[in-house]
């Protein structure tokens, strides 16, 4: 049976059985033979069978495909040929003994996972202590398991999980320096056995020694080690052996990595310390990258906000100028309309008083004309006031929300907004069943409380309006229901406000966040509420706002806000 052998003769040799079906090779996970090596293209080459022979076909790879050192596009291969893909060599053989190999689809070569690292540690030699070669391999694979991320706490817990698989430790803790206070703070803790929450989990003397000297330290027998002088924390916690290394991505210490064993002295060796130092260096770089990633993200948002502020300041000036120019003639129109309506009313009363002197037909005609005049003046006044409301909305929309951001209870803000919206709703006779489910896991969230309250009030008010319209059509057979929920989603929180009203047509949903777009009749809305609300959420709080709806059944607004992420400090 033909086979393809990766690293022939090496401890990590991999044998792939080839069948009649074509087999693709590359670093992408959807390849039949996946080798996650950076020198390979996502889809590098294909091995196919034709007329009883096997051919290697290059799939327009970046580094090319070679057979016995010669670059090829498509070439027949024979037993013993060496196929070079990127920096990797694979041996093709047509007569290898593969009776022990599965005659199935080739297996992919994957990066080591937590489980495979544990297997590597346990299978290396008696006692489960990795050899020097295995330690190097583990460090290489650990680097793959510590990707760049802005979630530092998750990263730190992953570091401790890996250490517990590699070394024989009972407790581990990672402490990072708080930039504001300059003090160490516990950020991740892991113990082999359950322990009371308030129980100490590291020796302050050992940590202080490492920080003071900026060195990695091994305490083979912590109780008898002269450097600790029988420290109280060591004796009280029954620490037998310990290792502690500084987290130094470059020159500055950003924290420490501490592990210990409570059952046996001399369980850690110098090679263990060297290994932990190398491991901590990788972890420190990952933590710093996470910090830089978060800082870059924050600075990017701040730069975007500065640009936005400049644009809005310019827009606000233009809108204010336009509003001033429009308001002057608009005020004259409104005032003269009211005066004209009053004069028309006086003329009507005077005509009625002089009715005996006028012809009945002429009097009726004059009364009708005056009635038309009064009605026209009323319409001018009504639309003038609406135009004035639109101008106010324009000014409000052009002005960026300026509320101070401070920690606030999101659940309390949402609950209060629901009550305010219901109290201020027109047609308060609507009997709405309100279902509220607030996630208690949501802690204080940094927000502009008044601005976000305005968003929730606006969304609830729209929901009440939609349910009122449906009630007018359905009558008593319809039961209005408003469901308000909050949820903690890890890196963000989510607020869902759902009503079973008229729903939102697809065409309307596509435009509903546009300024001045409204489906309400004149006088009921300006079309600026949802536009301004989305600006507060997206631009003011770096969140998201979207709507999910089925016309005639329901509409649900989904608002997400990012949770603050703590970043490690430098010293």
Task: Summarize the structure in words.
The protein is an alpha+beta fold and 571 residues long. It is 41% helix and 22% strand. The strands form 5 sheets. A 6-stranded antiparallel beta sheet has the order 2-1-11-10-7-8, with no helix packed on it. A 5-stranded mixed beta sheet has the order 4-3-5-6-9, with no helix packed on it. β20 (481-488) and β21 form a beta hairpin. α6 packs antiparallel against α7, α8 packs across α9 (449-474) and α9 (449-474) packs antiparallel against α11 (529-541). The protein is elongated. Mean pLDDT is 78; it is low at 96-127 and 565-571.
Concise synopsis of the structure shown:
With about 575 residues, the chain is α+β, with helices and mostly antiparallel strands. Helices cover about 40% and strands about 20% of the residues.
Give me the secondary-structure category: alpha+beta
Shape: elongated
Annotation, overall tally of beta strands: 23
Task: Note the total helix count.
Answer: 11
Radius of gyration: 37 Å
Mean pLDDT: 78
Proportion of beta-strand residues: 15-25%
**Would you identify the regions where 5 or more consecutive residues have pLDDT less than 50?**
96-127, 565-571
Q: Quaternary status of these chains?
A: single chain
If strands are numbered along the chain, what order do they take across the biggest sheet?
2-1-11-10-7-8
Bin the helical content. Answer: 40-55%
N-to-C span: 62 Å
The profile of the biggest β sheet is: 6 strands, antiparallel
